[in-house]
């Protein structure tokens, strides 16, 4: 079968700030570096067919640690900007707002240099991407970076495992998983795959529906047998359970106490679609409970 492990990058320096950080290219923090090493060590006995990563520094550094942990011969290593985080446009690097000011339009917020959380999938900051934009990009990435190169006859028939690691970012990963699940015969399970901890992974398997004939060549993705696409693991992070922040080294921004409460299930008025903009590892530990 085809096995795809979606891995979030290690903690970045921007994860420690109350700012929108999508394409903003921050390095890993000291803790993030150790998380990445722990990830690589945990995958040392899991042979990977390929590693594909976002071109942003925090993802590339994480993917490199994963690569370094693999035994020889090492897997191919591909860098692609399609796996970048959501682009927050003019909001990049600016502080986020938990709530919009009453009686003030979204455009008025932007005019005043304010960038509140967005509630609808089609909303975006000026010069940025909406969640619908990220979904379209994720669909291209799944098609061109994962399925076309690695969905072989032996993988589909189950006679051999092909294991691809995709190192990306929280919002992008949630859309990548959804894009892959849309190929499941019988529909897409209703589930939210946001909220990954730093270097945590979610795994998806793809195989042909039992009893179906598998073509010799699988290059035409529109002419495949019915697929069974299954999420087998979600937010696996055992490898970092003992990786702790060293006292006095890159401490958290105290302003993030409110955002931690929010991600832990604080009351909101509308569904929040993009929850993983720049949360620290601690904030990703629990999945946000969104209430209507």
Distance between the termini: 39 Å
Characterize the main sheet.
Answer: 6 strands, mixed
Helices, by number, come to 7
Rounded mean pLDDT score: 83
Radius of gyration of CA atoms, rounded to a whole number: 19 Å
Based on helices, strands and strand pairing, what is the structural class? Answer: alpha/beta
Strand order of the largest sheet: 3-2-6-1-7-8
How do the strands and helices of this protein lay out in sequence?
Elements: E1 2-8, H1 30-42, E2 50-53, H2 57-68, E3 77-79, E4 96-97, H3 106-111, E5 115-116, H4 131-150, H5 153-157, E6 162-168, H6 170-181, E7 201-208, E8 227-236, H7 257-263
Parallel strand pairs: 1-6, 2-3, 2-6, 4-5
Antiparallel strand pairs: 1-7, 7-8
Describe the structure.
- By secondary structure, the protein is an alpha/beta fold.
- The protein has helices spanning 30-42, 57-68, 106-111, 131-150, 153-157, 170-181, 257-263, and strands at 2-8, 50-53, 77-79, 96-97, 115-116, 162-168, 201-208, 227-236.
- A 6-stranded mixed sheet has the order 3-2-6-1-7-8, with helices on both faces. Strands 4-5 form a two-stranded parallel ribbon.
- The radius of gyration is 19 Å and the shape is globular.
- The chain starts with a strand and ends in a 29-residue tail after the last helix.
């Amino acid at each position: 079968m085809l096995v795809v492990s979606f891995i979030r990058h290690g903690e970045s320096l921007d994860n420690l700030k109350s700012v929108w950080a999508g394409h903003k290219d921050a390095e890993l923090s000291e803790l993030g570096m150790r998380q990445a090493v722990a990830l690589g060590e945990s995958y040392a006995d899991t042979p990977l067919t390929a590693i594909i990563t976002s071109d942003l520094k925090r993802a590339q550094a994480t993917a490199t640690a994963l690569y370094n942990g693999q035994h020889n011969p090492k897997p191919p290593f591909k860098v692609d900007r399609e796996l970048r985080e959501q682009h927050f446009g003019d909001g990049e690097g600016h502080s986020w707002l938990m709530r919009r000011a009453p009686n003030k339009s979204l455009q008025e917020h932007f005019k005043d240099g304010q960038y509140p959380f967005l509630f609808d999938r089609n909303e975006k900051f000026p010069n940025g991407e909406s969640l619908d934009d990220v979904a379209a990009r994720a669909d291209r990435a799944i098609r061109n970076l994962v399925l076309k190169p690695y969905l072989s006859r032996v993988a589909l028939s189950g006679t051999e495992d092909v294991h691809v690691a995709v190192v990306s970012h929280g919002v992008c990963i949630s859309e990548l998983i959804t894009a892959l699940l849309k190929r499941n015969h019988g529909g897409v399970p209703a589930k939210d795959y946001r909220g990954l901890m730093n270097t945590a992974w979610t795994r998806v398997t793809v195989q042909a529906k039992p009893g179906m004939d598998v073509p010799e060549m699988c290059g035409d993705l529109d002419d495949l047998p019915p697929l069974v696409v299954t999420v087998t693991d979600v937010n696996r992070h055992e490898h970092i359970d003992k990786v702790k922040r060293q006292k006095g080294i890159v401490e958290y921004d105290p302003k993030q106490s409110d955002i931690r409460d929010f991600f832990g299930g604080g009351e909101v008025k509308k569904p929040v679609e993009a929850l993983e903009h720049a949360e620290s590892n601690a904030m990703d530990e629990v999945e946000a409970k969104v209430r209507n």
